[in-house]
Input
Amino acid sequence: MSGEEYPFGIKGLVGRGGLLSGRGVGGMYVGDWKVFMPKIDYEKCTRCWLCVAYCPEAALSKGEEGPQLDPRFCKGCGVCANECPVKAIEMVRE
Amino acid sequence: MPEVDVMPGNKAVAYGVKLSRVKGIALFPITPQTTIVEYLADFIANGELDAEYIHAEGEHTAMAVAIGLSLSGVRAFTATNSQGLAYMHECVAQAPAYRTPLLMAIANRTLGWFWSIQPDYSDVMPELNLGWIIQFVESNQECLDTVIQLYKIAEDKRVLLPAMLCLDGFYLSYSNERVEIPDQEDVDDFLPPYEPKHAVDPTVSDFAPAAGLPTQLHTTYRRIYEEILHDAKQVIKEVNEEYGKRFGRTYGNGLIEEYRCEDVDAILVTMGSMTTAARRAIDELQGEGHKIGLVRVKTMRPFPSEEFRRLAEEVEAIGVVDRMVLHGTGGGGLAADLKSTLYSMEDRPLMVNFIAGMGGDDISTMDFKKMGERILKAVERGRVEREVEYIEHPFKPVSRLVPFKEKRVIYPGSGGCTGCGASIIIRHLLDVLGPNTVVVDPPNCAGINYSSVVGVPWILANYAATAGYQTGLYRGYKLKGKADKIHVVSFAGDGGTVDIGLQALSGAAERGESIIWICYDNEAYMNTGIQRSGSTPLYARTTTTPAGRFWRGKAERPKNVPLIMAAHGIPYVATASIAFIPDLRRKIKRAAEITSAGKGLAYIHIQAPCPTGWYYPPEKTVEVARLAVLTGAWPLIEIEEGRVKLNIKPKKLKPIKEYLRLQGRFRHLTDEQIEEIQRWVQESWESWLKLDEMGKLPWYR
Output
């Protein structure tokens, strides 16, 4: 085995921890953490995008009719619902 | 009657320390040691132990405090492992020469190169040969018993040397076992108070230990210390025997423990918790009629050479299981010691060295059985096929990553806690700085949780040296003409900034390195489990400043690090909050502009509310951050080229109670304590107002 083969860490080793792989290759699937899930009322939504700015997991993104939720990355923390100025987001049991 | 309880190894160590009536405890948290000092904090907070408890700002200091305590003539304790032990190495080397019989518990954990929090002995390996007494334990009961024994051994006037107790991280530190807690009176009788004749006390004498020696005496003193260590073997045996008489438990002869070694052809030699699985393997092998026994090395230093020479005469082969590799020698540390011990024998047994269990890899009974069979084969053939064998296990990667088509600076999802405040910061930070960013990150929860989901280089820096890594990278890019194109940014927690990382940060600021320092301040060491930091607010409850009968949370006010940084005369200092995102993003952008222009260090201190450590429901993360600003607990300030500006100036600050009552870490507060906090916040707010009015700090040109 030559030193050149494995310069840093283990090649192709992906998973939790840049401590191992040095660099990520995608988003971490955490959708199964949640108990409650945001339900967005697009009638009420004013597209102020505060929920998008505050979402710790970037599970919310800007969409045409309002914030779009990617449930694969939502942990159900409820920050979006708590911060929505017009209460357009409600946390509902999955 | 001794009490019996079920507890993890770390608690057993804490009980041992309590029963030994230790008078001074110096600490800095590191997994998997931390709960030892947390249990001790609980004992003190509730009045069960009367001792000075010193929250050091790094391990280097923790060891120095322990030596100082011991020099002053009191019984001292500290605990660490791995990176922390390596960081205190210099002080560890000082302790034997000062003849300080302190005790340090090491909850073993591998030493980076590749980081892990799981155990092997690579952390103790560099400390083995400094003159300490070093013992390895197998069970939680032995943790407790060994603490008491080691104080007796270390403080014996024939010895007077520091001692290390090594327990395997996780395997012992966090695993529950039945532990018998001896009665305090019996321990008091066994271990009298420490009253040294040689304490440094100018009211009694002008004695002080020598730090230096004439060149010609160095060799002589090395010999003398070697003889003291050698003679300590006798003391270890005596103490082990006396402990057995009083408390009914001995561990071999105190140096080694033999297991089913009668009439055997071969022995397996182990250390620490792995021995338990090895015992079962020996049982099975002997059940199958094989003549193989087991020897556990309890005392690694001084090395039990006489015992092994005696055993070597009786057997034909020895198998040595090593959880440490002496890189470049081709084998393990225990095997190297054994080989050099047995070299002078005329008829030496065969030896096979097994390297196993590195980084916490489990060594099963099956593995030990295979090792046993190898040795028996060597006995049969009369020769060894391979001197060193690595016991390796297959690795199956499990990924939780969802692949993305397009490249991003940071991907959604992370391992962070639900409602993590730091998560909001890192996303906006990288979004503003863009892809040409190198994140330099001291060990913290962000490193564990976000380094796997970023699309930019993320460099793990050693805790105290983050600004050093940044400096090197920045100067390198400068040489390549790319300093204005690449942002070198830290993502340090409050520990990495205001405590252990401050020295390197201060150096970089003074040298004018054009790097960005981001401190995400969750106001305690959250990665190791919510211990007090220099940034923890007044009276907040943490695991090392618990609220008990005697303690009411952290007694001190936090450091004002933004102003300390401004004292360096750096071009940009700011605080920010996740509740005010446009302000936060503007400040990051400004910092990037200033550093890209090569003007010097830009420092941004951002409050990162932590639902796990502050004990509030996760949806309140931004609400808590907003209240911190509106009550004056977290003033948003900006100091550009010395001009101080308070960014958010509410006409009337909200009462601090509104901020405190949301958080469980302040639930224990009395009305007087709340008033005191209100006073502190008010004073700090008024100071910033004054500075804001003043316009420019006078030391800026």
Summary: Chain A is about 15% helix and 20% strand. Chain A touches chain B through 40 residues (CB under 8 Å). Chain A has one domain: 27-93. Confidence is low (pLDDT under 50) at residues 5-23 of chain A.
